[in-house]
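Review box. Two proteins, two foldings.
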Amino acid sequence: MDRNTFTGLFLIMIVLAGSFYFFKPSEAELKKEQQRITADSARKAGVMPANITTPLPAAAPVLDSVALKGPFGSNITGTVTTSILENEKLKLTFTNKGGKILSVEVKDEKTYKGKPVVLFQGEQNKFGLDLNIGGKIVSTNELYFSTAKTSATSVTMRATYGAGKYIEFLYDLKPNSNNIDFNINVNGLNQVIQNNSLSLNWETELLEQEKSIKNEQRYSAPYYKYALETPDHLGVDKDHKEELKDGKIEWIAFKQHFFSGVLIPKDGFEKGNLEVKVSTEPGKVKWYAANMQLKFNQLASQSYDMQFYFGNNKFAELKKQGHEIEKLVEMGYWPLKYINRFVVLPVFNFLEGFGWNYGLIILVLTILLKLVLSPLTYKSYISMAKMRILKPEMDEIKAKVGDDNPTLLQQEYLKLYKQVGVNPLGGCLPMVLQLPIVMAFFFFFPNLFELRGQSFLWMHDLSTYDDFIKFGFTIPFIGDHLSLMCILMTISTLIYTYYNNQISGATGQMKYIGYIMPIIFLGVLNDYPAGLNYYYFLANMLTFGQQFLIKSMVNDEKIHNTLKENKVKPKEEKKKSKFQTRLDDYMRQQQQTKTQEKKKK
């Protein structure tokens, strides 16, 4: 190596050594680089080291935990706790999950199996507000409320959105009452909640209380009432959903056969929808859902005052609530509901005041009604007796005219009726006038809470069927049992029909139809309340007794002589009824039409 080459290499080594010395990294820079390498290795392995932090840019805002979790972030998670309010009539269990009533027990009432009557309970019961916040629906039913205040008669629960921003549910149970005051306070959320309405959602499943799940489903339905209109309800025998029209909705009710939960807002709901589904689960009757709209005025503080009613469907109790809530008790269609409302119910309540057994009350009620209707029964008997006495003469007319000319035969019959002064419908009209009362009881007894759990003779509960004979299997049209009271009712109806046919002299098809109907009613009424069958049994026996008494007082020979006298009276002395005049005109037109048709042929 020559001298110049050596000198060059020596100078290069000096420069490199100087560079390493003067430009080496500091301890802080070495630590930072080591952290970077470690972090890169951790990311590749899918793990984040515990002590590695990446500082945010200085301009980035620091977010709090509420904003990171979402609206009402501090209430999204929590631990379920419960509290209880009770008075002489109700026991209410509250949960902080949703700030709602978890279950309602109606005191001093038992199910058919002897357990406490609990209207609803468990997580399947939902209640709360659905809020539109930032385009997302937030349900308070899913939030964990904090208890803001509690006392022996009230509880207040709150879900907090932020400082001075919250939703508050306040419940106040009145002493010795089935009513609970319920208030919703919305504070400081006017810039948070979008749209001009809040949606109140209530869902629940009715629990089985009675002996017959079929009857419970038959008489259970969601009800609602518009302002200035009569309460209405959804269908009872199938799944049904209905949109409620815009306007003031005074209340909604989740009605069960003998118990109800009613929500009454002070200022009404704007609109909403109701839904019902028939349950197929054991121990469940139906599922109800209500989604109602409350007006939100975008005020800094806004409250909604409401009231719950939880209790029985006794007419007098519901009437105290006002707003026509007593119409949850189904009284039947027009005119049946007026008969039940203004005649049968007042008499029943009057008799109830004596403290008698309800079997005795039904007996006395039936006797009173039969006494009131006795003039119609008497008139019907006399009319049928006249038709029976005239039957020999009618048979002679039929033999003379023949069966091939029914129009002429009817004309001859009408001549005979006119001569003797008999109205052929005289026996039917009194029975038709009594029919609305008979049908009114068909609605009255199955919906009468007073009969629930009341026993009489072998019947343990007059509000349901008495399964005196149990099959252990189901027979089509009959069911899995036979009701002894229904059998007695059927036998009494057959006896009554037989006796009626003897009075009227019915023959042919009309005679046998009377025997077929009681057999049909045996299958229909076998599953109906024993109290209803008991009333029909009593009505048949009392009518039978009335007719037997009338028969002993009426002389058939005297009636026959009166008919003969009418027959020989001069024509000008006989006054033709409007019915007879119209019938004569109709028969004459029919005869003329038939004669013209024969001429054309």
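Next protein.
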Amino acid sequence: MLRREGRPVGVITANILPRSLGEALRGQQLRPGWIATLLDGRHLVIARTAQEEAFFARPAVDWMTEFQRGTAAAATVKGHARDGTPIYAVLRRLPLGNWVLALSVPRAAIDGPLRRAVLVAATGGALAVTLAALVALVLGARLGEEVEALGADAAMVARDQPPPPRARPRVREVARVRQALAEAGAALRARAAAKREAEEHLVLLLREVDHRAKNALAVALSLIRLAPRDVPPAGFAAAAEGRITAMARAHALLARGAWTGAELQALAESELPAHAGQVRLSGPPARLSAEAVQPVAMLLHELATNAAKHGALSAPVGSVRIAWRFLPEDRALQLEWTESGGPRLTGAPSRRSFGLRLMTQLAERQLAGRLAFDWAPDGLRATLTLPAARVAPDGTPLAEAAPADRPAAVTPRPAWTGTGDLPPRVLVVEDEALLALELETGLRELGCEVVGPARNLAEALRLAEAEPRLAAAVLDINLGGGELVFPVADALAARGVPYLLATGYGSAGPLEGRDAGAVAVLRKPYQRAALGAALARALPGHQPGEGAPMAAAPKGAEG
């Protein structure tokens, strides 16, 4: 429909001209008096080799109509033409649209001496069959094959498969349908692929949330276990509540960012809401990786707690300035905490408190960064340097750790079972600083000497391969940055060193079947009794230290 200024002004149509069909029939060069007629499904003449204009769109003669209404594929009849001339006719049903091709020959041209009549009849029959087959091939193959190909393509699309490449259709309408079918198939396949990807992403996200939740519970448990016992219950409860609340705020930020990271400014604002009037923030847009959000939040919480008790935030006129910048040489981030206006300091503390040890562990072991303190008289200054892999300008993708090659699995040699005076040396591989510190403390209480803790795959492999007299190992499965601990397990198995696996995942999928080679699998958060029982199986020749719980337990998922 053609429109001009919103009004229809014309119609464009496309038709197959009957003239072209008549030209195809006349191109067969029939003998004089022989007439080829093509009927459509309505018993109307649509092409004729003779007097086509006079007979076009007129109903066929009765014997043609009777044949067309029947079911036979071909027939030879004896009848009369419209003008009463006796004729012989050969009719052929075409495979498309119930069309019929009729070839009529005057009987006078065939009748004669018996021999000539038989010869002429045989020749005419052969010619009629050949002509019918030729016309069927020219017309039927041109349309029928392409329509059948469309059906095959539609079946492929229904099976979510791309249709095979085909030659360009010779009929324009078929070409348009094929193009539309190809576009619809591509859209359906893209939609199905997007749905599969979304489902896989959802499964991974749910598994990661489960892992992070278990890790968070384990970290909270470690905070309670490691906190000093020489403080009043109210102070102990307040400290534990503040640290766990800081973790909760960090996890809320991670959840809003789909567990991909969080902006540094938003994290700092969430950790210092009670001191907003005394704290100034400045720095370029920066985004922390998901692994760095929780430790940085706890660092800021410890600094704010110390400042509220002993530093600038304990005085009404005190203030804290938090400024950060990217270092030009390696794109690392340097964050400075500067206090002023508080009580004058007399130097560094005489003993390292739990908070100082916690901040150092978080910065150096978990974040792979550096933390320096300057106890100046006018106020504390702390400088935290984070590597580029932990933070990047907002909108810039964070660097990803390259996956390490896994050594081939080998058959382990017998485990070490020495029972001498030296304590058993246990390798600890754990990227979460608090969990590593709590595990280190628990192993020492069990009478073990701790090797490590190693926080990444490279460091863990070095210790597993080169450290002498290893008796056992406790390995966290997921070391962050996409690194898995299984190459370390293979290296330990090669030395005959038994190992325990620790994981925050609730399903066996992330274990990749490696739990078969482990003494036990500890599910975070696990109890120290479960750790002791697993070590009792790993060190059958070791006697635990005095008062250490080492009761045996069945192999499997502990805690």
